[in-house]
Amino acid sequence: MTKSELISRIAELNPHLYLRDIEKIVETFFEEITKALANGDRVELRGFGAFSVKERDARIGRNPRTGEKVEVDAKRLPFFKTGKALRDRLNEE
Fold first, then answer.
1. Closest CA relative to residue 45, chosen from 58, 36, 55
2. Which residues pair with 49 in a beta bridge?
3. Of these four, 30, 33, 42, 65, which has the most CB atoms within 10 Å of its CB?
4. Upper half-sphere CA count for residue 41 (Cβ side, 13 Å)
5. Angle CA(4)–CA(10)–CA(14) in degrees, nearest 5?
6. Which domain holds residue 70?
């Protein structure tokens, strides 16, 4: 599902809301999660999952094409861990 599909689905379920308001809500939601992660905070949505940031140390990597050693800088990566309710829902039979 894309962001525009999400907005359309919310609009279908809430015909009393204006499309521009729904777009603003969805955009604000993602913006706030992004800001929190950029600050190193954890974002937990009960029943859905938790977003956090993992730190990767600098290391020496290898160029797969040439085999040459390359330095890889330290970086921060987003990480998502599913919540129990979501895992259970996905594994229903």
1. 36
2. 45, 82
3. 33
4. 8
5. 145
6. 3-90
Radius of gyration of the chain (CA): 19
Q: How many Å apart are CA 12 and CA 91, to the nearest integer?
A: 27
pTM: 0.77
Token digits of residue 17: 């809301």
pLDDT in tens, 21-77: 999 999 999 999 999 999 999 999 999 999 999 999 999 999 999 999 999 999 999
Alpha-carbon distance of 13 to 22, in angstroms, equals 11
Q: Could you give the residue ranges of the DSSP H alpha helices within the chain?
A: 3-13, 19-38, 84-90
CATH of the domain at 62: 4.10.520.10
**Measuring CA to CA, how many Å separate 48 from each of 41, 61, 64?**
17, 35, 37
